[in-house]
Amino acid sequence: MTVPTGLGEPRGPWFVSPVTDPWAAAAAATDGPSGPDGPGRWRRRLLAASAVLALSVTSGGLAGGVVAGWENGPARLAAGLPSPSASASAGVPADLVAAAAQVLPGVVSVQISRGAMVSSGSGFAIDDHHHIITNDHILDGDSLPGTPLNGHQVSVVAPDGRRIVAEVVGRDPGSDIAVLRVSPSAGLRPLVLAQTGSTQVGEAVLAVGSPLGLSGTVTAGIVSALDREVRLGNGGRRTAVQTDASINPGNSGGPLVNADGEVIGVNTAIATLEGAGSIGIGFAIPIQRAEQAADEIIRRGG
């Protein structure tokens, strides 16, 4: 039986909210202690709601249990791509439907098998040499280029459902980017990468990946902000693309694409309230930085 690996637990990187404490001044001006409805109570509530970033990785076994429990719930709605008419009624631009159709053939679910345990994330094809970009934190362990991950099998699930063994070309923990390679038989369609400086705040985007193990899931939103400072990977603070497209555990490594089907970022982390899942604040590594890291990895590893 597949059991959780713990990869889905919030384990950073941390995001320091810029929200200030509006009750601090009131508390300082109060002589007596805070009562049950006083500023102390609200300060505790504010602290309890502090936002942190959680790496969007999940255990395949855990995802199976969650999906089974939601058989008639919202997970079922997220399992497929809506029709153009449904998209229009929901306010989703029709060009996003075409973008999804263009992107899905190049997106895979990345799975790490550790005996009975399976952890998963997402990835996407970037060239005709069958290289796949994903997040380094999905692999969560040491590896040598061209070898299985510490003896654990790394595989991808192609859009047609086939499971294909993948080679770890190399990793860059500092940028949280890793590169895999699969055989030509995978038949993946390389995704087009957006040009530098072309991404704009407010433009429509799609997050594509395998949240909770649901391969080929597409969610829509907009670019909420550019150059948002967060701590991604094991390096210092870096800028990221912020989006309100729904990103959940398992989306890590998947593409964030614009309405033209061009990749603008690599979905990497989400902000959550304590005890909750996605709250509509996600972060993606800008594609130019991810591409530079991937090119260096491929140059070193083949």
Tell me the series of helices and strands, N- to C-terminal: HHEEHHHHEEEHEEEEEEEEEEEH
CATH class: Mainly Beta
* Uncertain regions spanning at least 5 consecutive residues: 1-37, 39-52, 57-89, 142-147
Which structural class fits the helix and strand makeup? alpha+beta
Main beta sheet strand tally, sense and closure: 8 strands, antiparallel
Mean pLDDT across residues: 74
Strand content: 25-35%
Number of helices: 8
Question: How far from one another are the termini?
Answer: 36 Å
Number of strands: 16
Number of domain modules: 1
CATH topology, what is it called? Thrombin, subunit H
Radius of gyration: 20 Å
Overall CATH architecture: Beta Barrel
**Fraction in helix:** 10-25%
What is the approximate shape? globular
Provide a descriptive summary of the structure in words:
- 21% of the residues lie in helices and 32% in strands.
- The chain is of the alpha+beta class.
- The chain has a single domain, classed as Beta Barrel (Thrombin, subunit H).
- Strands 2, 3, 4, 5, 6, 7, 8 and 9 form an eight-stranded antiparallel sheet that branches. Strands 11-12-13-16-15-14 form a six-stranded antiparallel barrel.
- A hairpin with a 4-residue loop joins strand 8 and strand 9.
- The longest helix has 15 residues, at 287-301.
- The two termini are 36 Å apart.
- The model is unreliable at 1-37, 39-52, 57-89 and 142-147 (pLDDT under 50).
